[in-house]
Amino acid sequence: MKKVDQLNHWMYDILKEAGVSNQIAAWLNVLMLIIAFSIICYTIHKVAHKLLKVTVGRIAENTSTPFDDHLVRYKALFYISQLPGLVIVMRAIPWVFIDFPDYAAFASSLADVYLIILCIWIAKAFLNAGKDYLKTKEAFKDKPVESFVQVIMIALYFTGALLIFSSLTGKSVIAFLTAMGAASAILLLIFKDTLLGFVASIQVSANDMVRIGDWITLDKYGADGDVIEINLTTVKVQNFDKTITTIPTYYLISDSFRNWRGMEKGGGRRIKRSIFIKLSSIRYMTDEELQNIGRIQLLKPYLDKASVEIEQYNESAGIDKSLLINGRNLTNAGLFRKYTEEYLSHHPKIHKELTMMVRQLAPNEKGMPIEIYAFTNDVRWVNYEHIMADIFDHLLAAVKYFDLQIFEFPTSGDFTQNRRQVEALEM
């Protein structure tokens, strides 16, 4: 013990012999010891870090898991290698500050605080490494792992804050929690968004409402794209124009949104669009016109069957066919609707196992809507748009073969043409 004390006061004795006062000699002695231990701890840290990197490197060579790579990236080895030196410092503080016991207590508290912070850093590095590792697994790619890591980190930070408070003040953690009870309402107000996000993250995950990679649409917030991140407080959506929309997580359970996952998994994307037929162009078809339309291959089987049924009905009922309105008759709009059904049923890009129909909606100021309701068998956006455009290009061009007209609002050219016709009649 005497040898230890002599080593402790080695610089002090040298300074005293040089004529330095007791107080200055004591402070300079402490300063030199701090510098000496700083050098020792730094050396130990470097050696430990090097040994850990070599050890982990050898382990990584024998394993295929990327977990160790993530540990290095998040500096887990760097933080762990500081522990041996910190332990030495904590053991040496009473010896270094033997002449200043008040400062020794303060230095010990600071060392305890740094140890708590260092442990939190190590835990955070392992959590982040585990998060990135799980994201490489197929089962966790669409799960909000980020949210759960953030919840654990909040718990770690809160626990660390309690331990730091206890270390600096000397009071127990229970006393601090008792004092915090009175301020719970204020804390709930401060951490309202975090708590709401935490609850929302659990509900979103438990109910499988949204996954990473889902295409969602929230018109209220201008979001229309793929979910790229789900964390404790926000959901990041990469829109199709490559912009990023950030939405609070709890909005996913408080507001309505559209998730297109079912469409993508079902293998069909819906077409729901109408062609507006001008009402004045709808009429009965004459026998001569039916013979001409019978040349349309897709319509010929239906037309042959329907013509026989209608003729038999009219003859059995004694219908006077001198007027087309009498009895049963075919209309150009009905034939066009039937042609559209046949065209869709023969189209290679229409999903045959999902709903497919062509229906007539209630007439309005734009005419009579003929709505196409079907699903493409290609859900990719660009391909879907091309398929739908090809279908409607064909149908719009086919309308004239049924002597129908598409409704459109008059333009300046229409008014000019009408004016010229009136002028020609007046002349």
Fold and architecture overview:
This protein is an alpha+beta fold and 427 residues long. The protein has 3 domains: 135 residues, no CATH class; 107 residues, SH3 type barrels (Roll), CATH 2.30.30; 144 residues, no CATH class. 60% of the residues lie in helices and 11% in strands. It is built from 18 helices and 8 strands. Helix 2 runs antiparallel to helix 3, helix 4 packs across helix 7 and helix 7 runs antiparallel to helix 8. Its main location: membrane. It is a multi-pass membrane protein.
Task: List its salient traits.
elongated, disordered N terminus, single chain, 3 domains, alpha+beta, three-stranded antiparallel β-sheet, SH3 type barrels
Structural class category: alpha+beta
Biggest sheet, open or closed, and with what strands and sense? Answer: 5 strands, antiparallel
Count of extended strands: 8
Helix content: 55-70%
Shape: elongated
Membrane topology: Multi-pass membrane protein
GO cellular component, one term: plasma membrane
Subcellular location: Cell inner membrane
Keywords: Cell inner membrane, Cell membrane, Membrane, Stress response, Transmembrane, Transmembrane helix
What's the quick description here?
This protein has 427 residues and is an alpha+beta fold.
Summarize the topology:
Elements: H1 2-8, H2 10-17, H3 22-62, H4 67-73, H5 76-80, H6 83-96, H7 101-135, H8 145-169, H9 173-182, H10 184-190, H11 192-206, E1 215-218, E2 223-230, E3 234-239, E4 244-248, H12 251-254, E5 258-259, H13 261-266, E6 269-277, H14 287-293, H15 300-316, H16 332-345, E7 357-360, E8 368-376, H17 381-398, H18 412-426
Antiparallel strand pairs: 1-2, 1-5, 2-3, 3-4, 6-8, 7-8
